[in-house]
Amino acid sequence: MTSLPGGSDTSASTAEPRPLVCARCGTRSEGPQPTWTCSVENGTRHYFCDTCARENLRAIEGRLDSAWW
Q1: Count of domains for the chain
Q2: Which domain holds residue 54?
Q3: Residue 34 Cα distances to 10, 46, 67, 68, 69, angstroms
Q4: Least CB-packed of 16, 49, 62, 63 within 10 Å?
């Protein structure tokens, strides 16, 4: 089993997944969002919606923390 960066290998298979919330604009996901961007900053996961990820693509690719955008 593989885990995402910043996560743990333990999981509760009976727990319902929490909706994702964009760390930049606060948009909530309506379900699984495979196109959202996940960034690990200082050991914490931050999720960004499609719109915020597209608007800040250069900063994301340059590995700048979201505080810089």
Answers
A1: 1
A2: 20-69
A3: 21, 14, 24, 25, 23
A4: 16
Q: Is the pTM of this model over 0.85?
A: no
In 3D, which of 39, 48, 43 has the Cα closest to residue 20? 48
d(CA 40, CA 23) in angstroms, rounded, equals 12
Residue 15 lies in a domain: no
Identify which has the larger pLDDT, 46 or 33: 46
Q: How far apart are CA 69 and CA 58, in angstroms?
A: 10
- DSSP labels, 21-36: B-TTT-PBPSS--TTS
Q: Which amino acid is at 57?
A: L
49 contacts 38 by C-beta, under 8 angstroms: no
Please report, for residues 16, 19, 42, the alpha-carbon distance to residue 24 in angstroms, rounded to integers and kept in the order given.
Answer: 24, 15, 16
